[in-house]
Amino acid sequence: MQKRTLNNGLKVICYPIEHAMSVEIGLYIRAGARYENKEDNGITHLLEHMHFRQLGDMNQKEIYETTEMMGTSLRGTTYKEMLCFNMKVRPKYLEKSLDIFEKILTTYDWTEEQLESEKKVVINEIYEKEDEVTLEKIYDKAIWRKNPLKRGILGSEENVKGFTVDDLVGYKKEIFSKNNVTLVITGAIDEEKSREIFEEFGKIKINEGVERKEKVE
User: Fold this and answer.
1) 213 has pLDDT over 80
2) Which residues contact 151 (CB under 8 A, 6 or more apart)?
3) C-alpha pair distances (Å), 13 with each of 18, 38, 191, 195
4) Sign of the Cα pseudo-torsion (35, 87, 76, 209, in order)
5) Is the pLDDT of residue 212 over 70?
């Protein structure tokens, strides 16, 4: 395993697996409900969604067509303590998939129209979940009382409606920052490819940002 903090502050871990037939790429960002307050709860999840609307010069249709052509899909997940993006590809598509992850790191130019469309998707999710009574909800309220972990990842309808593109861009600059983002590549890679990855991703400008801390109420 090779683990490096590049000159731009990005942490990269390359973990070759002998005889592996695929490569898995994961981008992990410290973010989520644990680091949100009542007013911006849900912003991490909405930001995750926006990456499927536009990535650099790729629109939504092109994102899905490109990943489907590689026989895979780009997956995004928001947890209470983490935002992550993952892909699993055949080795011959590694370069194309790494290009997508570069775009995830560097895309900040969404439109208000794209945002308004994605808000509707997230608000529908909120409607679907609001009447659910789950063990997780009961546990969170009972255990985490004054801790942000008591809140879900979706936020409220009011919060989601109030977010602007500037809010999302400012938030992304804060969390996609030095010491807050880790890229992991594991599977059918070798030392030479690892060095190429370190070099390529070391060229990306990473924001200074601020240290994300749990917001206790």
Assistant:
1) no
2) 33, 36, 38, 41, 140
3) 16, 34, 12, 11
4) positive
5) no
